[in-house]
Amino acid sequence: MPTASSSRLKSSARSRRVPSSDGIEEDGLSQQPTQDDVDEGGSSSEEEQQPRRKSVKKEKNAKKRGPQVEDDNEDDDRIDVRNFRDQPLDRKDGAKLHGIAQDWEMTRKQAHQGSFGLVNDVAISLADVMDGDQAEEALAEVDIIMRDLLDIEQEMISHEETLDGIYQRLSQGEAIEGVLDMYEKGVKTQLNDFRKKTSRQKYSKNERYTKFKQGVYEVQHPGEAIPPINEFIPKEDADDSDDDDDLEVGGMTQDYKCPITLTILINPVTSQICGHSFSANAIREFLGNTRKAKKCPASGCNKEISLGDLKPDKELEKKVKIAARRLRREEDDSDEDVDEVIE
């Protein structure tokens, strides 16, 4: 059965609609926007409102920040670091440089306060427990560490002395320009002068290195005087002739006996006046309970000492114990050799 097409249905529906007398309904229908019109109109209105809201926010933020400074003015107030000259220093700035030099000194002492003592203790312990080639190889490595520490110390001293030299010139009223270049050049000059020296020139007269070598030698050769330090440092081309080395005096023989009891030191204390060491109980008994000073009981010493001048010597106590152990081992070895000969 044939069906009516959609066009026919629409035309019949329009034919059935009765128009109103005043035409209001038709006008109202004609004024209603289509869905496409609504979508286009809504999107256009929103787009118009968004930039308006953004402009309002910008105006509010600008009011809060206040007036803006132009970039040209900011550039005028900046310092041209690349073309800014070093300002000359005068006497008022000398105190600052002196303080920096003291900081270098304090840092050096704090950094090396325990380092040198630790290296000395390690070397003495190795000398005590090792013999022959094994001991020589191990002690050579410790010797390198000690020299490295001395080199670092000298570098820090170069900074101290250079700053102190500039400070002295400022204290005399001299105005110094280019202080940074002067400081860097002064440090570099001192380091170069030190590095040009031979090993003997660097270390043979260094108090820390001498003490290091002496401690090892006393353990390995108890009761013997240490030879000149130069004998432990190979000679280089820039060193003086061997004839000049003959003038150098060797170290003193370390005596581990108390001058009062004539026996090995026990809990040794050392006088800060004359440097002699005693067993703690023996010297306290000799001086009595008074603070009155008495002549030092060590042979040939004319200095007067009191209880307040005596300080416990832990380092000497370690050496005494190590030397005593080594002597006992040597005595035991000699007794075994005698027994073998008898058999």
UniProtKB/TrEMBL annotation:
<feature type="region of interest" description="Disordered">
    <location>
        <begin position="1"/>
        <end position="94"/>
    </location>
</feature>
<dbReference type="Pfam" id="PF11789">
    <property type="entry name" value="zf-Nse"/>
</dbReference>
<dbReference type="InterPro" id="IPR004181">
    <property type="entry name" value="Znf_MIZ"/>
</dbReference>
<feature type="compositionally biased region" description="Low complexity">
    <location>
        <begin position="1"/>
        <end position="10"/>
    </location>
</feature>
<feature type="compositionally biased region" description="Acidic residues">
    <location>
        <begin position="36"/>
        <end position="48"/>
    </location>
</feature>
<keyword id="KW-0833">Ubl conjugation pathway</keyword>
<keyword id="KW-0479">Metal-binding</keyword>
<dbReference type="GO" id="GO:0061665">
    <property type="term" value="F:SUMO ligase activity"/>
</dbReference>
<keyword id="KW-0539">Nucleus</keyword>
<feature type="compositionally biased region" description="Basic residues">
    <location>
        <begin position="52"/>
        <end position="66"/>
    </location>
</feature>
<keyword id="KW-0808">Transferase</keyword>
<feature type="domain" description="SP-RING-type">
    <location>
        <begin position="243"/>
        <end position="325"/>
    </location>
</feature>
<dbReference type="GO" id="GO:0016925">
    <property type="term" value="P:protein sumoylation"/>
</dbReference>
<dbReference type="InterPro" id="IPR026846">
    <property type="entry name" value="Nse2(Mms21)"/>
</dbReference>
<keyword id="KW-0862">Zinc</keyword>
<dbReference type="GO" id="GO:0008270">
    <property type="term" value="F:zinc ion binding"/>
</dbReference>
<comment type="pathway">
    <text>Protein modification; protein sumoylation.</text>
</comment>
<dbReference type="InterPro" id="IPR013083">
    <property type="entry name" value="Znf_RING/FYVE/PHD"/>
</dbReference>
<keyword id="KW-0863">Zinc-finger</keyword>
<protein>
    <recommendedName>
        <fullName>SP-RING-type domain-containing protein</fullName>
    </recommendedName>
</protein>
<dbReference type="GO" id="GO:0005634">
    <property type="term" value="C:nucleus"/>
</dbReference>
<feature type="compositionally biased region" description="Acidic residues">
    <location>
        <begin position="69"/>
        <end position="78"/>
    </location>
</feature>
<feature type="compositionally biased region" description="Basic and acidic residues">
    <location>
        <begin position="79"/>
        <end position="94"/>
    </location>
</feature>
<dbReference type="GO" id="GO:0030915">
    <property type="term" value="C:Smc5-Smc6 complex"/>
</dbReference>
<comment type="similarity">
    <text>Belongs to the NSE2 family.</text>
</comment>
<dbReference type="GO" id="GO:0000724">
    <property type="term" value="P:double-strand break repair via homologous recombination"/>
</dbReference>
